[in-house]
Design goal:
heterodimer, A: alpha/beta, Rossmann fold, 7-stranded mixed sheet, 4-stranded antiparallel sheet, 7 helices, B: alpha+beta, 6-stranded mixed barrel, two-stranded antiparallel sheet, 12 strands, elongated
């Protein structure tokens, strides 16, 4: 299988005044298409920084990042916006839906920035909502949806542009355990359809849903295990 | 991202905070309304002045006799009786820049009809006078050259005189007595309104020049005229005509060397043009004062847009994370600001137009609203939106998506 993500010796240094802090100290790993990866680690371990770089929201200080074969590290802000729009789907801990906006329009949002016209937009958005089991809730505003439903809307929004990877940042962090299970089974189902998922979490039972776990500590990978076996 | 979508997002954002949007708009509404109303009052004033210029007739030069000294007392301008009907003929025939010239005499007296009487200005004139002053009759006929030559006792009434002596009855064909002499009314003149000095031009009665010279003038020199009204051939020739008249009359009256001329010329249009200019300057000044309130309104827009950007930091972060470019965010907030000011502008135009109408009906001030001032106001309101919306929009577009997403 081809690699969707390839990180080679990624470093990220933050400078605050005359203080320097190295959040990532040379991280390398590949993710193949169709994998379901959980990134774990305590806070301050560098997993969030790594996630921001994977999400093209931040750029590494050094090292190479290939996303779907494209060298993302050399791109300007507008190109990165395009990459985020077309290659990535985001799912956040706090759902991050637009308030006072119907669910279906939230799902449509990436397509709006992709310049797709209204009719096709609505069609694709409705398909994505069906995929996450939210048919019939199209007109509901986020305040009229439960936490689980809101996260489903967010997943539909991440799916709608057929991204290469879905990046989920603590997707169950704001949900009770029953709803968490629901969302994780949805992720499993989507992964079975061949969608690549990378998920940040600090909960072991949530990470256990993924086929592969990468554990960060102090800006480095200390464990990379697939199906219980260290890679 | 297409414009329609941007507009939709902006409209939704404005609808979400209806009260705030309205209050923000209020600054622009008041500013634009003030500009429109002030411009309307100003251009109304200059319109009235230009109407008055037109009521005198265009390209007019007035020739009046100079002062005279009798028994050590000097009379004022026009006191001397130095201009004659022959001077008028000479001006007409010998000055190439002069189109028309008309001699007039002016006196006042009591006019009697039946048991009604009215004191008014009595002018002796020739047919040219009415042509120069662009003053037609509404009923009956005008004074003809024949009336003048034969000194017929006929008269034309100004509207005010006709109203006071005849009410709604038709005066034509009736006999009125002027200084006890019977005159037949041959016509009534069109209403002319106030002169630039504020006197009622319609409170005048006209008789043929020679009739006035022979029967009504106090002077014994029956060929004298009180003043000559001259119309130059064109506006450009006004100055030249004035020079020609001066040199002709100097020659005819044998005024040489240091001798003071016994007549003077006045260019009426010039005086009024100055008045019109000052009225225009006044209206510009009023507009400038009003536009200060527009700037204040613009600052209000900027303030609220900055608040809005801060409030919606998270939304901006979400939009950026899923693919909005800096430009998309910039356009979104600019559209919102411009939409605010343009809506405010439209309401302001309606309010200003209404306000001007109320002012003109309550205070009796003349107001005029031009398409020009409306379009200027509209473009100006959009410009205020662009100018004051740019800084907040740029601030929004410059946000770092990671920080924006984490913003609480």
């Amino acid at each position: 299988m081809s690699d969707v993500i390839s990180l080679t010796d990624i470093r990220r240094v933050f400078t605050m005044g005359d203080q320097q802090f190295e959040a990532l100290k040379g991280v390398s790993y590949n993710v193949a298409a169709g994998e379901f990866v959980a990134i774990m680690g305590a806070s301050g371990s560098g997993k969030s920084t790594c996630m921001n770089i994977l999400g093209c929201l931040d750029r590494p200080t050094s090292g190479q990042y290939l996303l779907d074969g494209l060298d993302v590290g050399t791109m300007g802000p507008n190109q990165l916006a395009d990459i985020r729009n077309k290659k990535l789907g985001f799912v956040f801990q706090g759902f991050n839906l637009l308030a006072r906006t119907p669910a279906v329009e939230n799902v449509e949002l990436p397509l709006v920035y992709a310049g797709i016209h209204a009719k096709e937009r609505r069609h694709k958005a409705l398909m994505a909502m069906e995929q996450v089991g939210l048919s019939g809730k199209e007109k509901n505003h986020s305040s009229q949806l439960s936490g689980g439903q809101q996260q489903r809307v967010a997943i539909a929004r991440a799916l709608v542009n057929n991204p290469a990877v879905i990046l989920a940042d603590e997707p169950t962090g704001n949900l009770d355990s029953a709803t968490s299970e629901e969302i994780m089974s949805l992720f499993m189902a989507l992964n079975k359809q061949g969608i690549t998922i990378i998920m940040v979490t600090h909960e072991h039972d949530v990470a256990a849903y993924a086929g592969r776990q990468i554990t960060f500590k102090d800006g480095k990978i200390i464990l990379d295990s697939k199906n219980g076996l260290t890679v | 991202m297409d414009f329609l979508q941007t507009l939709k997002i902006a409209l939704r954002a404005l609808r979400t905070n209806k009260m705030r949007s309205f209050l923000t708009m209020l600054g622009i509404i008041i500013g634009i309304a003030a500009v429109i109303a002030m411009m309307a009052v100003g251009s109304g004033a200059s319109y009235v002045i230009s109407q008055q210029i037109a009521s005198i007739g265009s390209n007019i030069i007035l020739v009046i006799p100079g002062s005279t000294t009798s028994g050590g007392l000097r009379t004022g301008s026009g006191g001397a009786q130095t201009l004659t009907s022959d001077d008028v003929k000479a001006i007409m025939n010998e000055c190439p820049s002069v189109g028309l010239a008309a001699g007039t005499v002016r006196t006042s007296g009591q006019v009697v009809y039946g048991n009604l009487n009215w004191s008014t200005v009595i002018m002796g004139g020739t047919p040219e006078l009415f042509e120069i002053r662009e003053w037609p009759v509404t009923a009956g006929r005008n004074i003809t050259q024949q009336d003048v030559d034969s000194a017929v006792k006929v008269c034309l009434l100004g509207q005010t005189v006709a109203d006071n002596l005849f009410g709604s009855a038709d005066p034509v064909g009736n006999i009125v007595r002027i200084k006890k002499i019977p005159f037949t009314v041959i016509g009534v003149l069109e209403r002319k309104g106030q002169s630039p000095q504020g006197t009622d031009q319609d409170d005048t009665l006209f008789v043929p020049l020679r009739t006035a010279q022979r029967n009504l003038s106090r002077s014994h020199h029956t060929n004298n005229v009180g003043a000559v009204i001259v119309k130059a051939k064109s506006e450009e020739l006004l100055g030249k005509a004035e020079e020609e008249i001066n040199s002709l009359l100097n020659q005819r009256h044998r005024i040489t060397g240091g001798k003071e001329p016994d007549f003077s010329t006045r260019n009426l249009s010039e005086i009024l043009a100055v008045a019109e200019k000052s009225a225009k300057a006044m209206s510009l000044l009023l507009g400038a004062v009003a536009s200060i309130s527009l700037i204040v309104g613009g600052i209000g827009i900027m303030n609220i847009m900055l608040v809005s950007v801060t409030e919606r930091t998270r939304e901006i972060g979400i939009r950026m994370a899923i693919g909005a470019k800096k430009n998309d965010i910039l356009m979104q907030f600019m559209t919102e600001a411009v939409l605010l000011t343009m809506l405010g502008g439209l309401i302001g135009i309606a309010l200003g137009t209404g306000g001007a109408t109320i002012v003109s009906s309550l205070l009796g001030w003349p107001t005029m609203i031009s398409i020009q001032s409306i379009s200027i106001a509209f473009v100006f309101s959009a410009a205020v939106g662009i100018f004051f919306g740019f800084y907040p929009a740029r601030k929004a577009a410059g946000l770092n998506p990671i920080d924006a997403l984490r913003y609480e």
